[in-house]
Amino acid sequence: MGRMNRGTRALSRIAAWLLVGAVVNVTVAWWLGWRVLYQPDSFQSTNKPMEPGEFVPREVPNELVGPAGLSLSRWRQFGADHVLVHKGPWTMRWADVPVIPLEALWPHWGPLAGRDPRDVYESMNIPLGHTARGWPMLSMWCAFEQGTHGRVQGGIHLGHKQTPNTFIVTDLVLPMRPIPLGFAVNTVVYGAAAWIAFALPLAWRRRRRIRRGWCPECAYPVGTSPVCTECGAPLLLRPGSA
Predict the structure, then answer these.
(1) Calpha distance 188→197 (Å, rounded)
(2) Which end of the chain is less enclosed by CB atoms within 10 A, N or C?
(3) Number of domains in the chain
(4) Helix, strand or coil, per DSSP, at residue 98
(5) 166 assigned to some structural domain
């Protein structure tokens, strides 16, 4: 019975610290959604002419479209990621942006993860925008309908802000949809960090009291009794003290 009680208490403590970690995880993701503004040097794009043999809609000439009939743009920064997928008969290549294969920029999170670009092309009706936040891993995301300012799916829109001296406008959002792996990892990391931050001072105080010959729980001077005569806590007596 005693072992079961100790096991139950241990599980309850672990669950409590994981809950703390989850709260911190969401707070960090939301803070990043509110504070991060996209910068020009974080921009990457797949805009380029088609290569022979790549998928292209029948009615569109090869030299006018991007990979799989899609143009993918992506901003990747500390704790933030934004993906925009365009479907169209042509794309415009930026002279100062290097060509990057579509597969290298395809996101591993959100609704596009694991999907074939051809399937995405066939099912798209409007440009798709997805944005994620979180650290050390992306943990929460939401979706945008591009061209409709403030319309967000799976998140709360706080407005938009332009990066100084650029044309780039960042939608400030609180993402609500979890990215399973990132959310789990961040929750464990933050929960462990919170436990360490709480446990280390207590362990240092306990060690300090024991070295001074005090009860580790209440700091009452220790005698020859195996328990503290003040609070009743069990004591580890030094050899020869009994």
Answers:
(1) 14
(2) N
(3) 1
(4) coil
(5) yes
